Every structure is written in C-alpha cells, then in structure tokens.
Amino acid sequence: MTRSLTTGVARAALGVVACATLAAALPAAVPLLAGPALAQQPPAPTATVALDAVVLSLGPVTLKAPTLELRGTALSRDEARAILDPAGPAPWRTRLERLSAREIVIPVLRVEQPAGGRVQVAVYHDVVARDVTAGRIGVLEAGGATLTVEGPGPDAAGAYGRLSARELDLPGLARLLTEPGGPDAAPIRVYAGVTAEDIALTGPDGAAFRIARIDARDLTGRPTTIPWGETVRALAEGAGRKDAPERSRMAGLAADLIDGLGIGGLEISGLTLAAPGGPAATPGGPAAGPGAKPVLASLARLTYGPEGEAKPGAGNTAAGQPGLGEMRAEGLAVEAPAGRVALKGLTLSGLSLKPVLEGLRRAAAGPLDPAEMRRYAPALARIAVESLDVDLPAQGSPGQGSPAPGPGADPLRQASGPLRFALRGGSLAMSEVRDGVPTASRLTIDGLTGAVPPDTTAPLLSDLAGLGYTGLDLSGTVDARWDEAARELTFKDVTLTGKDMGTARITGTIGGIGKEVFDPEPMVSSLALLGASAKSLALTLENGGLFQRFVDQQAKAQSLKPEELQREYGTAAMLGIPAVLGGSPSAKALGQAVSRFVVKPGRLSVRAAAKDPAGLGLIDFSTAPSPGKIFDRLTVEAQAE
User: Fold this and answer.
1) FRET pair for 253, CA 20 to 30 Å: which of 121, 276, 404, 549?
2) Residues 6+ apart with CB under 8 A from 317
C-alpha cells in the first residue's frame, strides 16, 4: 500500500483539526482579497463577514478555501484583517483569542501536504464551526472528504464520511504549532473529542481498507523545544536520510514530539481489509492467477486508553509514573491462502513508550549499537488472548492458486494434513525488566485444543492416535523469576495438564545465573549458561488416563492382561532403579515409589536437592563415572499415593 493508504486513519482523526485551523486562522486570505468584499462597514453583533480565495500555509500543510463566512460575529473586516494578518506582530494564539462567531462556514476546504515528492490532497466539504468564543470552537463538523495523491507514481484514493470535533482549542493548537516550549511547559488540551465515520481507502494494488468509525478523546500536547510545525516539517523532509548526523537529529526531534503528545482514549470500529491474493499482493511480484484467493481481514473494535498510575515492577515504567496504557482488539478474522485465523479478544496491558523515548534520545547522541536495541522496545506488562481459532491447509496438497510446497515446507503439516487448533484463553505477565528482557514472568494457557487425525504420520501425534486419542485439550502454567542477588532462576510452577491424560508439575531452582546470561551478545550469554547449576527439583505426576492407555496398548501387543503387564513393570522399577542408582536407601525408596505408581497409578511425587549448596553443574554431570555417583550427591524423597 502507498503511504497515503497507511496513514489515512491518522489523517481521518486529525483532518477536522485542519478544518478548524483554517476556519479560525484566516490570516493569509485577507491580503489576497479585494473589491466590495472588503468595503468598510460598521460591525453589527450578528454581522456576516464573507471572504474569498482563502489560502493559509501552516508549515508543510497548505489550506485553501474558495469562500468562507463568519456568521454572527462582532468583528469588522479591519479587525478580522488585523487578527488574521500572517505578518502581524502578535503571536497567533493571542490573535486567535480575539476570534468569536456564532458560526464559521466553509463550503469547500482543500488541504495539501507534500509526501515523498508527491502531494496528498484532502478535500473537505460542508465545514461548519459553531459556538466560536475567543478562538475556542464548541463543535466543528464536516460533511465528508475525498482523498487523492497528486504527482508521478501509483494512484491511491479514499473518502471520509461525516467528521466532527468537540471543544477545539485553536489558540492552544496555534501555540503548539508555532511557539517553542520545553520539558517543563504545561500541557494543552487540543480537543475534547474527534469523530470520523465511513472511511474508505484504496491502494494502487487494489487493496481496499474501510473503517466504520473512529472516536478519539482528550488530545493533549506539550509545547516542545522546537514548535510542532517546524518539527513535523523537518521530520518529513528528513525521512529516508542515511547520513548519521541527520538521523541523530531526526531521532531527537521525534522523541521530543512523541513525549509531548497524550491521548485520553481511542476507539476504532468496523475495520475491514480486502487485498488481492497470490503473488500480486507482493510489490513487484507477478500477477495473481484467476483463481488466486484474496486476503480478507476484519476487526470489530480496537480501543486504547490510559491505565493511570504505574504499578511497581510493571514493565520499564517506574512506580507512580503515569503513562501506562491498555490496548484491546476484539473480533479479529483473517481469511487468506495461507489459512484462516479468528480471535475474539487480544489485550495488551501496561503499555509504555518510555523505553522508545529513551532509545530515540540515545540515538540523538550518536549511533546505536544494534545489541542495545532490545532495551528500547515498548514496555508491556501483560498480554491476554481470548478464544483463538487457527485453521491452516495442508502444505502437501496445494489448492487452486496455492504454490506447491518448497524445500522449507513444514514437515509436520505435510505429514498431518490440514492443521487446526484453538485456544480458549491465555496470558503472559511480565515484570522486573532488565535491558529489555523481563526477569519475572507467568505464562498461562487454558484449553489449547486440536484434532489428532487417525492416519497421521507426524511425530507424537501418531503415537497419541495409536493410544486412541482423537483430540488434544491442554492447559498449563509456567511461572519463573530470576533473583539477581542470589544469582538464581526459580521455577515456582511449571504445570502441564491434558484432558483424559494427567498432570505433570515441576518446581525447581537453578543457580549460577548471573546478569551475563542477559547479555545481548549471544556468545557471552551462552558461555554464562555453562556456569549454571541445579540446586533443587520437585516433580509430581498425576495419572489421568494416559498411562493406563499406554499399558492397555502394550498389553494387547504382548497378549497379556493389563494388570499382568503392570506387575512386570512394577517389579522392573523396584529392582532396576536401585541397581542403576547405586543401591542406596534413597535409590530403593525411589524404586519402591515408582513401582507402586506403576502397579496402581495415582500420584507420584519426587523431590531432589543437591547436598552441595552451590548445586550440581554441567561439569559434575559430564565427569561422573556413573548415575549412582550423581545420585549420591542428592537428597531424594519419593512418595506414591
């Protein structure tokens, strides 16, 4: 898609602001006017002032209105000329504060903005600003707009339906655009709300993007060191520059601008995308065949809002610092040649751009080391998924318009045919971030389901099919935390549960995990892992049907009764485990516990801890002459219920 298509959503939300700026900032038009329209008449409290051929330049943006009327204003034409004169000595915000009218009407408004050697043009119609007092607009509305891109290059177009803004502060906006500020400047609320409806954008490749409605509220801005207008123009002109000094300057400008922006909430509803399928969807690729399947995507609702005060340990944001946000997507559906995806809900909590701003400021001081980049990723405290459904076609049997599998095709999908799985819910909570990596996390999966085809040849799935399973239903938890002072990684809870299978639960502690493990250089982190040592481990197995199915299968293959085979396995465990592990009392206790579990499957618990407080390292395991020598260095307890 072209840049006009990808930036259309933002322009829809901000387009009415441009309308308001022209409606109140008529200065550039006044010197162009002549004739009876400027005849001097005493103002009346409800007078109408009409202006023709209004042209106003705001940085890189040019606004043009063939006609414009101020209705119900006490301003004379001379006063309007003084307020709106672009060469006037007073700051824009001071002059706009003198602008008042019952209505400002602009039948047609053209907004031009250069972009990459071309010009993006938005033409708004039926623009009306109501209740304008001291430059502040109560309600601003536009009947709609059309979008085009002029100049050499691929065509792109679009249209908006009705647009409106509420409580728009034009003097405040003028201050942001034209006056410098700084980190200590007070924020300004630009508007209370903006709404755009029925947005349709079309790219040169035939892709069509639509949005039913956009609602944004409480946009605030802080005057930056360089005014917004100059900053935006510099960023547009510097886009694509590769020289290091210019890129550093752009990074500093972007950091200052982003840090000065704030939004109280955003809601986008009814998003749809239709793009040609096949190779034609790739720029420069060959044309898609007549049977190529298009890519269809839709999203019912996308929202963003601030979470309020940050909590201790949430992402990279310090306690008590505002700025965390939450984003939620609802009703996502994607249909493409590669497969189908449906998602009921996705929530991203604890979002913060603080690391991004730090990275931009660091880049402003000089080139960034690629190894540092992960430190400057957006902070994220939690990801939650609700009802995910994925359906992928088999790679081994391409359909019409689908390419045949290549050397890199997934062997699992080729062996198992179509792959379909679903997830009822899941979440990942992350905290205590170090250099962009969370050192404490909790992953929860609830109901990962999928079919087990009876004729599959895929590893593991074929074994489960042989045990009589027709489907999988798995849930689990992984809860881990790194303690920098103790140099330990603790697995508080690692649990996997399968329906009609059972549950496996592990807890443990690994020592010798220093900060070097998180070094961005792979060689350093890999060498640091070699110093890890096992300190403790606890394993609990609860039979839920998997073990019994295995016994039944093996018994049938050996023409034995299941209970007979279980007794054989039990005897082998009771005698074999102590024999392998050295015959110590702990080894015998372990063999007896495993034997009881095999004969009558229920629950088996095994706990082991290194006798040496430093734990057992990789060298200890690799140099031990026998498993019994390792076992002798452990304190082991086992119990079967």
Assistant:
1) 121
2) 310, 323, 324, 350, 352, 354, 379
Backbone CA torsion sign across 227, 69, 19, 33: negative
SS3 assignment, position 112: strand
Query: CA 615, CA 636: separation in Å to the nearest integer?
Result: 14
Contacts of 125 (CB under 8 A, 6+ apart): 107, 108, 109, 142, 143, 144, 145
- Sorting pLDDT into bands at 50, 70 and 90, what band is 278? low
Could you read off the pLDDT of 516-536 as tens digits, one per residue? Answer: 888 888 888 888 888 899 999
The alpha carbon dihedral of 99, 228, 201, 209 has a sign of negative
CA–CA separation, 304 and 348 (whole Å): 9
Angle in degrees, CA 546, 567, 584, rounded to 5: 100
Residue corresponding to tokens 């505002």: 322
Distance between CA atoms of 41 and 49, rounded to whole angstroms? 10
With residue 348 as reference, give the H or E element that holds it: strand 339-351
Between the alpha carbon of residue 252 and those of residues 143, 256, 361, 473, the distances in Å are: 38, 6, 5, 50
Q: In one letter, which amino acid is 70?
A: L
Beta-carbon count within 10 A of 614 CB: 11
**SS3 at position 298:** strand
What is the sign, positive or negative, of the torsion defined by CA atoms of 508, 511, 517, 522?
negative
* Tokens describing residue 114: 């250069």
* pTM for the full predicted model: 0.80
Cβ count near 575 (within 10 Å): 13
- Tokens of residue 508, six digits: 């443990």
Q: For residue 315, give the nearest of 356, 346, 345 by alpha carbon.
A: 356
Handedness of CA 183, 189, 190, 192 (dihedral sign): positive
Residue 74 structure tokens: 């006490």
**Rounded Cα–Cα distance for residues 195 and 200 (Å):** 15
pLDDT at 323: 60
Tokens of 413: 């999908």
Alpha-carbon span 146 to 158, nearest angstrom: 6
- CA nearest neighbour of 333 among 379, 374, 391, 278: 391
